[in-house]
Amino acid sequence: MNADSTVCTAGLSDDSSLLASGYSDSKIRIHSVTHKKLRAFKPAPVLKELDREGDDVMEQMFDNTTASVEKTIHCPHAGAIYSTSFSPDRRFLLAGCGDGSIRLWSLWLWTNLVNYKCHMYPVSDVEFSPLGHYFASCGTDRVGRLWSTESITPLRLFIGHNDDLTKIHFHPNSNYVATASADRTVRMWDAATGTCVRYFTGHKDVPQALCFSRCGKYLASGGRDGGIHIWDVAMAKEVLELEYHTKPVYALCFSRDNTLLASSGHDGNVALWNYKGLADQYQADNVSFGASGGAAYLVRSYATKRTSVMNLHFTRRNILLAVGKYGEL
Q: In angstroms, rounded to a whole number, what is the distance separating the alpha carbons of residues 105 and 189?
């Protein structure tokens, strides 16, 4: 996919059918990864004439004449698009913008439904809850926020970091939210009360990638120094630091069967780690490994020629998809 401006972010829907990429010129491109084309609702006068009692009324509402494999939406005066997130049902798309706003787009009407304005500075990350309805955001104003799609004001403020926030991520049960900050710490927050319940330190540089294991017992964080830290959520301590990447880590993702951890970054490499073996040994010994390294847990690595891998995603069939910017290296 060619682009005439800088790619700032890229992400896939949970079912791996849609790909969204955000650009520095305030544009978002939505691509269909499958054979299904992107469709919009028919005009209101046409919808009034539909047979509402029909079995295929939902199918009749979509306009097949304008369907395409790619659609472009523009966020006027929004600045660069730094983050995007699909809702679990693929009906909505969130966009974190450089002007401090968060835009909610309908993927049925292809219009901007809500413009959330609360961040004072650029929004670095935004993410839908695994259950939908709620979403979280963070930015360079050092504050994380929890939102509901029904309200234009945040429900919770996560305050405590001493520097810009780089990443925000939901726990699989949606009861907790993890944040990474330029103050080199990772915090975990209670979504119900907004209080900090875990505080992880140990990064040598800014952490900017987060991912909870599928079971929710462990949290992985990657930093600009290329290190990957595995944290025990219950015990609030570090399990092990994995070292392989030579440049900043951009993305982390656990496999659907919770046996592998994938990592990627600016060095153009994708690494697969034996997470199950690491977790089993840690639980058996009940002590942290302490020393960094973790070379024994590296299963395999894949190198690209000139692609900085920005996003990783395991499909429901446990196939790893990687998205990046070609020609950046």
A: 27
Element (H, E) at 194: none
Estimate to the nearest angstrom the gap between the alpha carbon of 145 and the chain centroid. 15
Beta-bridged to residue 185, according to DSSP, are 201
Q: How far apart are CA 53 and CA 33, in angstroms?
A: 32
pLDDT, tens only, 121-152: 999 999 999 999 999 999 999 999 999 999 99
Query: How many CB atoms within 10 Å of residue 29?
Result: 18
Phi (first) and psi of residue 295, to 5 degrees = -60, -30
Region of residue 209 (phi > 0: left; psi between -120 and 50: alpha; otherwise: beta): beta
Backbone angles phi, psi at 188, to 5 degrees: -125, 135
189, 289, 285, 295: CA torsion to nearest 10: 110
* Alpha helices (H) in the chain, listed in sequence order: 44-48, 57-61, 275-285
The string of DSSP codes covering 257-278 is TSSEEEEEETTSEEEEEEHHHH
- Residue in this structure with the two tokens 């993890």, named with its chain if needed: 178
Q: Are 241 and 229 in contact (CB under 8 A)?
A: yes
Entry pTM:
0.93
Q: Which phi and psi (to 5°) does residue 44 adopt?
A: -55, -45
Residue 2 φ/ψ, nearest 5 degrees: -85, 150
Both tokens assigned to 65:
């004449």
